[in-house]
Amino acid sequence: MLLNILNIMAVAPCFVAKVPQILLMAKTQNVRGVSFESVLLDLFCYVNTGSFSYYQGYPIFQYLEYPVLLVQIIFICLLYGHISSRRMRSYMWLIVFLVQGYSFSFIPKHIALTLIGTNTVIGTLSKVAQISAIVKSGTSGNVSFTAYFFNFIASSSRLSSMILSEIGEQIIRLNFLISVIGNAGVMLAIFIYRPVVHHKKE
To answer: Does 197 map to a domain?
Structure first.
């Protein structure tokens, strides 16, 4: 029962995890404080784990959050390119990630696990890049706290689910642990650098 609840909590938030960020960028038409490098690094990690899990024949419910998140982060990548008038850059990177995902269909498992192992470092760098972008711009007004909160809940639930069910590679569990810590760090940065609203005196 607990395991089923954790699996649902791991997947459910992912269906809307990036939506607040998408809506915020679409509303402000501004990418200040949003790290494109972080978007690319997230794409790398999602493609890695999602493709590995698919081609290794894992139960779909054990990795459903990755294809769901992938669709949303692809949309963010395209939206970033549109707002920053650098669409071609976004297209080229998405082609690279498409090739990356397909490569998991033929590379040996030990090489695939090595690539998965890089997620620990890449995932950390992704969060560091986003925190750095917020600090550098001096504002988190264009970065959604809700998006990272959803990711925090999903990663925490998936990590707990994998530990209880004893399913999944150790390196994937470590990746989820890093994701939990990283999302908490970004949320803290968003809170610290939130825009100050000045109320007009009547």
So the answer is: no
Tokens 């040996």 appear where? 108
Range of the domain at 134: 2-192
**Residues 6+ positions from 73 with CB-CB distance below 8 Å:** 18, 39, 42, 43, 46
158-178 confidence digits (pLDDT tens) = 888 888 877 767 777 888 888
Between residues 168 and 53, the one the model is more confident about: 53
Cα 142 to Cα 74: distance, rounded to the nearest angstrom: 18
Token pair for 163: 């530990």
pTM higher than 0.85 for the full model? no
Q: Which of 48, 45, 47, 37 is nearest to 77 (CA)?
A: 37
C-alpha separations of 143 from 11, 29, 63, 121, 189 in Å? 22, 12, 26, 22, 10
* Mean per-residue pLDDT of the chain: 88
Residue 184 maps to a domain: yes
Residue 188 lies in a domain: yes
User: How far is it, in rounded angstroms, from Cα 177 to Cα 195?
Assistant: 29
Angle at 81 between CA 97 and CA 28, to 5 degrees: 130
**Number of structural domains, the chain?**
1
